[in-house]
Write a structure and sequence with these properties.
By secondary structure, the protein is an alpha+beta fold. It has one domain. About 45% of the residues lie in helices and about 20% in strands. The protein is built from 2 helices and 2 strands, in the order E-H-E-H. It has a two-stranded parallel sheet with strand order 1-2. About 5% of the residues are buried.
Protein backbone atom coordinates (compact mmCIF):
# COMPACT_ATOMS: atom_id res chain seq x y z
CA UNK A 1 0.00 0.00 0.00
CA UNK A 2 1.17 3.52 -0.74
CA UNK A 3 2.17 5.48 2.33
CA UNK A 4 1.76 8.95 0.77
CA UNK A 5 -1.20 10.81 -0.65
CA UNK A 6 -1.82 14.29 -2.03
CA UNK A 7 -5.20 15.70 -1.06
CA UNK A 8 -6.59 18.42 -3.30
CA UNK A 9 -8.47 20.10 -0.48
CA UNK A 10 -8.51 23.60 -1.97
CA UNK A 11 -11.25 23.81 -4.60
CA UNK A 12 -9.92 25.85 -7.51
CA UNK A 13 -13.27 25.89 -9.27
CA UNK A 14 -15.10 28.25 -6.92
CA UNK A 15 -14.45 31.24 -4.67
CA UNK A 16 -15.75 29.65 -1.46
CA UNK A 17 -13.01 29.60 1.18
CA UNK A 18 -12.56 26.19 2.77
CA UNK A 19 -13.20 25.71 6.47
CA UNK A 20 -10.84 24.02 8.89
CA UNK A 21 -13.53 21.60 10.09
CA UNK A 22 -14.06 20.25 6.56
CA UNK A 23 -10.33 19.87 5.90
CA UNK A 24 -9.76 18.18 9.25
CA UNK A 25 -12.43 15.60 8.42
CA UNK A 26 -10.71 14.74 5.12
CA UNK A 27 -7.24 14.55 6.69
CA UNK A 28 -8.49 12.34 9.52
CA UNK A 29 -10.09 10.02 7.00
CA UNK A 30 -6.79 9.72 5.12
CA UNK A 31 -5.05 8.94 8.42
CA UNK A 32 -7.58 6.18 9.14
CA UNK A 33 -6.72 4.60 5.79
CA UNK A 34 -3.11 4.39 6.93
CA UNK A 35 -1.42 7.13 4.94
CA UNK A 36 1.68 8.42 6.73
CA UNK A 37 2.63 11.32 4.47
CA UNK A 38 -0.26 13.59 3.55
CA UNK A 39 0.31 16.50 1.20
CA UNK A 40 -2.31 19.24 1.16
CA UNK A 41 -2.70 21.06 -2.15
CA UNK A 42 -5.24 22.68 -4.49
CA UNK A 43 -7.22 20.29 -6.69
CA UNK A 44 -5.97 22.05 -9.84
CA UNK A 45 -4.36 25.31 -10.96
CA UNK A 46 -5.74 28.53 -9.47
CA UNK A 47 -5.53 30.35 -12.83
CA UNK A 48 -9.22 31.12 -13.26
CA UNK A 49 -9.87 32.49 -9.77
CA UNK A 50 -9.61 36.20 -9.08
CA UNK A 51 -6.11 36.93 -7.80
CA UNK A 52 -7.37 38.12 -4.40
CA UNK A 53 -9.30 34.88 -3.84
CA UNK A 54 -6.40 32.72 -5.01
CA UNK A 55 -4.10 34.37 -2.46
CA UNK A 56 -6.70 33.92 0.29
CA UNK A 57 -7.00 30.25 -0.53
CA UNK A 58 -3.23 29.77 -0.56
CA UNK A 59 -2.85 31.56 2.77
CA UNK A 60 -5.59 29.35 4.21
CA UNK A 61 -3.81 26.28 2.82
CA UNK A 62 -0.60 27.37 4.57
CA UNK A 63 -2.53 27.71 7.85
CA UNK A 64 -3.98 24.21 7.42
CA UNK A 65 -0.53 22.74 6.84
CA UNK A 66 0.88 24.54 9.86
CA UNK A 67 -2.02 23.41 12.06
CA UNK A 68 -1.62 19.75 11.11
CA UNK A 69 2.16 19.81 11.54
CA UNK A 70 1.72 21.08 15.07
CA UNK A 71 3.85 24.20 14.57
Amino acid sequence: MTESIALGIIDSRNTKIERFKEVKRVVNRALRYGFRDIYLCPNTLLDFLPEVIAYKKLRRLARFVKAFKGD
